[in-house]
Specification:
The chain is an all-beta fold. The chain has one helix at residues 7-11; strands at residues 56-59, 65-68, 82-86, 91-95, 106-109, 115-118, 121-122, 126-127, 131-135, 140-144, 155-158, 164-167, 175-180, 185-191, 200-203, 209-212, 215-216, 221-222, 225-230, 235-241, 250-253, 259-262, 265-267, 274-275, 279-283, 288-292, 303-306, 312-315, 327-332, 337-344, 353-356, 362-365. It starts with 6 loop residues before the first helix and ends in a 20-residue tail after the last strand.
Length: 385
């Protein structure tokens, strides 16, 4: 599907592609006591073979991290390249190339250990529907059946039965669909209440899927209403509404099964973007959202990870100015409060990925700094188990 405008400019003009150079960051955090922050110890851990943003990063069953696609430069922006991070050697190495360069796609780890990447934006076409599967054993990608609808800036989750649910995205309308790994087939499965891009999905403990946030690109409305997908019925239904509709936020399932959303963009004007520090929690038992403690720093385009301690680690992003953030903060579900950490990112960054290693360490890779340059250094930040 031909995209008349680069989609970031269509929905979120301040994200139009800037001049790029090379970047990577990896990060390691020293153990923190529950009550107070301590300084982290940096540990160099290599650099990406192909610095990027707008990519995905997935932990493989063998513990490596697979980085896929993304934007790599102004002249040939969408990347064919994939690479893996090896924790034992703290280094990145190239692996098989994609058949189709892409960015802003969705990528999931299948139950058999392969990796499925789907949709996104590509050269000459814009938003497209192509799907590929990565085999960690061979390091190669294989093309498979395309999605029924082209989509980008969407989300996908693996259901308890192993199928993959893809929903939302620019120009995908209200369509949602299922991928069946044994047959490689796609089938339609219910419709959203309204078109939705930039939303996030979370697989709940009861097997249903929560869709929250995002933007109705047909009219520019930020969406408050959340929806639930029932795999048994193959249908969507309304559930509680966000108190504060948002895009470019984070969404994390907590250890107790509730879902946290935090930060994000409330207004997408390129000159006067409005970024929020608010956070709220969805309770599957009641179907309601409740406001909780606010971030210490308003931020969008950042990352958040659930730690083994049950706390949530949020890093980087931007606050609505051209500046990228280097600050880190942590959320405690026990008291509903955020606290800033003494540790800062080595360089401010936004549009990065953050992926947990098997030992609880966090790898933060890619992104852009305040000068739209890629970060050259690499760090590892380790959390207690």
């Amino acid at each position: 599907m031909k995209n008349p405008l680069f989609s970031r400019s269509l929905v979120f003009p301040r994200l139009a592609l800037p001049p790029l150079s090379k970047c990577v960051a990896l990060l390691m955090l020293a153990a923190l006591s529950p009550g107070m922050a301590q300084n982290s110890a940096a540990d160099p851990a290599g650099e990406l073979v192909h610095p990027r943003y707008g990519h995905t990063a997935t932990r493989l069953l063998d513990g490596r991290i697979l980085a896929v696609g993304g934007v790599i430069d102004d002249f040939y922006p969408f990347s064919f390249y994939s690479e893996t991070y090896e924790p034992a050697t703290k280094s990145w190495s190239a692996t098989g190339n994609l058949f189709h360069p892409r960015a802003f796609q969705a990528t999931v780890l299948l139950q058999d250990g392969r990796v499925l990447t789907m949709g996104g934006e590509t050269l000459g076409v814009g938003i497209f529907s192509a799907v590929e599967i990565f085999d960690p054993g061979t390091g190669n990608w294989t093309e498979t059946n395309p999605m029924l609808a082209p989509r980008a800036f969407f989300d996908a989750v693996v259901l308890a039965n192993g199928k993959v649910l893809a929903a939302g995205g620019l120009f995908a309308g209200t369509t949602t669909e299922l991928f069946d790994p044994p047959t490689h087939g796609w089938s339609a499965s219910g419709s959203l209440a309204q078109p939705r891009a930039y939303g996030h999905m979370t697989l709940l403990d009861n097997g249903k899927v929560l869709m929250a946030g995002g933007n109705d690109y047909s009219n520019g409305t930020f969406i408050a209403q959340s929806e639930l997908y029932d795999p048994a019925a193959g249908t969507w239904s309304a559930t509680g509404s966000l108190n504060i509709p948002r895009i470019n936020f984070v969404q994390v399932k907590l250890a107790d099964g509730r879902v946290l959303v935090a930060g994000g963009l409330l207004k997408s004007s390129p000159r006067h973007p409005q970024v929020t520090n608010t956070a709220e929690i969805y309770d599957p038992a009641t179907g309601l959202w409740t406001l909780t403690g606010s971030l210490k720093t308003a931020r969008a385009d950042f990352t958040a990870n659930l730690l083994s301690s049950g706390r949530v680690f949020a890093a980087g992003g931007d606050d609505g100015t051209p500046l990228a953030l280097d600050s880190i903060e942590e959320f405690s579900p026990a008291n509903g409060k955020w606290r800033p950490l003494a540790t800062l990112l080595s360089t401010s960054r936004k549009f990065h990925t953050s992926t947990a290693l098997s030992d609880g360490s966090l790898i933060v890779a890619g992104g852009r700094d305040t000068n739209n340059e890629f970060v050259p250094d690499a760090e590892l930040i380790v959390r207690p188990r």
